[in-house]
């Protein structure tokens, strides 16, 4: 599976921009040939409208690139839930999930499969070709890192949780690439928040398990992300790198807002880390998920 | 903070002027049968009267308008959770575990509020006034139901306004906040009823797994049940 293809696809956006403006470049040349007075007068407007048109809306190939990247992540998630909840290979693991846990996980499975279908349809309607993966493309041990994922639901839930948190960061990271696009940005945001709901729920499941084992409430995993890796799984550190950030819009929100500090007191830093989720760029996310693809 | 001080987005129209325009239109309709001169006279009087009485806030236009819209919603949420946590029933109605998490939610919302206030600086709307009399802060069920609806509303608001934002930095900041609101929403929904974190009232579960986004008009209409300060959102971008 050539994951880097998707990055290349995005990088193609700039050359395409060159192609897009070249007919206009020719037009400008023609203007010049009419005579220098006309050319000088027309140039600023020509350049202005040229850039406006080139940057007012993303090219459909750049949008398809973003959507195929999202689709790839949704394939990873949907296949993970499909395997965990229906494949005989995961029967031992599944047997250690409670009925209530199973009920919630099935809801997530449905959403992820719907996300796949939705993105496939959108990409096709934009004239693009959706990427495609099957169950055979995945290795949910991540080349042995999560060797007991078939039998241990603690591991399986930890991986699920990481996928959801990473998905939230991945969608967030692409939002600027869809700026002002009512249809596609709104759809991406509508998926982004659903992934965050899934992430919150999975974190609650893990928290409840920790509480049963006697970990104190104060030390258990939260529905929201605290610090640079609160998952309890060192192997997924890359998924949480940067989540300890407290600089937002150039301001240290943990210390720079007095009314907040008065309320939050000793928890000002941890609550500030939790209050903002951080984006991840495409190469980082691809690096994180690559071990899960064969 | 400098990031939100884009000069071109500063308030171009005062709330008074906005409101008087409305009043003018209204007056024109009312006195349509009278002469043109009379309309002008009455309209002018109405403006004057209204200017003295207007006590609301004007969100503004462009990105400033959208950020003020978010600021208004964060003010609402922060005020609500401050009430929840400071109420004497908080420690009896909620478990120790829930108290820790709900107190953190309060911190998040106060931080969001203060962040927008600092970021908007001179463009920020004033502090809003609230009426939470419909919520019984003494009971768990009433608090959780309200928390759930505020969080769901907040997520739908950010999702619905995202495409209206012009500056990619602001869009990312909104994205950083909305997913935390969604985490809150899922938490409260699961507290109200287990496994309702993606209920079909908020997510199109049957068809595509997308959350339902809402327009500023819809959201402000819902929020006006709790926000007593009049909000003028007339100049928010619509495309």
Describe the structure.
The complex is a heterodimer of chains A (294) and B (239). Helices cover 64% and strands 1% of the residues of chain A. By secondary structure, chain A is mainly α. Chain A has two domains: 4-56, no CATH class; 61-225 and 280-292, Ferritin, CATH 1.20.1260.10. In chain A, strands 1-2 form a two-stranded antiparallel ribbon. In chain A, a hairpin with a 2-residue loop joins strand 1 and strand 2 (251-252). The longest helix of chain A is centred in the last third of the chain and has 31 residues, at 182-212. The termini of chain A are close together. By secondary structure, chain B is an all-alpha fold. Chain B has two domains: 12-53, no CATH class; 62-230, Ferritin, core subunit, four-helix bundle (Ferritin). Chain B is globular.
Oligomeric state of the chains in view: heterodimer
Task: Provide the helix percentage of chain B.
Answer: 55-70%
- Describe the global form of chain B: globular
> What structural category characterises the helix and strand content of chain A?
mainly alpha
Tally of DSSP helical segments of chain B:
8
Architecture per CATH nomenclature, i.e. the level-2 architecture of the largest domain in chain A: Up-down Bundle
CATH architectural category of the largest domain in chain B? Up-down Bundle
Please, what is the CATH homologous superfamily of the largest domain in chain A?
Answer: Ferritin, core subunit, four-helix bundle
Number of strands of chain A: 2
Shape label of chain A: globular
CATH class of the largest domain in chain B: Mainly Alpha
Helical fraction of chain A equals 55-70%
Tell me, rounded to a whole number, the average pLDDT of chain B.
Answer: 84
Separation of the first and last Cα atoms of chain A:
7 Å
Radius of gyration of chain B (Å): 20 Å
Largest interface: A-B, 69 and 62 residues
Largest sheet of chain A: 2 strands, antiparallel
Tell me what portion of residues of chain A adopts beta-strand conformation. under 5%
What is the CATH topology classification name of the largest domain in chain B?
A: Ferritin
**What fraction of residues of chain B sit in β-strands?**
under 5%
